[in-house]
Amino acid sequence: MQGWLVVNGYLKSDKFEEIYSWLTEAAQKEGISLRKIPGDQLDSILPANPQNINWKERPDFVLFWDKDVKLARLLEREGFRVFNSADGIEACDDKALTFIKLKNKNIKMPKTFIAPMTFDKEYKDYTFVLQVQESLGYPMIIKENKGSFGEQVYLVKNYYDAVDKIKAIGHDEFLMQEYIECSKGKDVRIHVVGDKVITAMKRHNENDFRANVTNGGSMEPYEPTAEQKETALQVCKELELDFAGVDILFGKEEEPILCEVNSNAHFKNIYDCTGVNVAEHIMKYIKRAVTEMQE
User: Fold this and answer.
1) pLDDT tens digits, residue range 14-61?
2) Is the peptide bond before 8 cis (omega within 30 degrees of 0)?
3) Are 34 and 64 in contact (CB under 8 A)?
4) Is residue 52 within a helix (H) or strand (E), and if so which, with residue range?
5) Contact assessment for residue 142 and residue 156, using Cβ atoms and an 8 Å cutoff
6) Does pTM top 0.90 for this prediction?
């Protein structure tokens, strides 16, 4: 069995290379030859005219470890089985889309309002903030639609603070959310592969409202409650994800409240915390899925 590991050609760091190595090693254990290909090199492989394809090497699947949704869709149009799908990646990469797709699905989420579209023009009228604050109150979370590691998530304490933050964000899209104070500095990261919860950890940070380890938080192995597992599995099913990292907040009665979903969640931290190698579970799942597809 052969596969392509499609990565972003412009994200070059030891952190990403380590992830790619783990996936490649996990593939080898399953007897899979996994070729890493930067997305910006695929133009030399994909034919411009799909009717005249003379494949020298057509993989059995594509493991898409990037967020270039258009490229993922192109690969799907060429007939490749892509893990995760373009729709799944897009829904996770844009937090407003995550909210829209999961709205009215009996999944508890913070109260959320999507900022109005400006066609890349600066806001001149902040009446919408006054309207939103009537429902959310303060403090309030302002979260850029696209971001990672908690770096584009802000806690604002009043109207003027909110307006200043919106001005600083500039043309980037964002949403405004209820602040779940009872989950300040703590959440649960649950890794799902297929229809199973593989492992989980609890993250907590005494010095920040965000629990992310990259922001100075600590982590410990955690056994999710039945409700938390059910939430994580339902989220992945609704978003049609093959695998994901699902972040869950604690409600006042410890009920699960969805924070966000990561379609290609990094798994080094959870390995250090729990000893579970998520890459191995991903490759086992892909091997089963491709085998069933070929039978």
Assistant:
1) 889 999 999 999 999 999 999 999 998 887 777 666 555 555 578 999
2) no
3) no
4) none
5) yes
6) yes
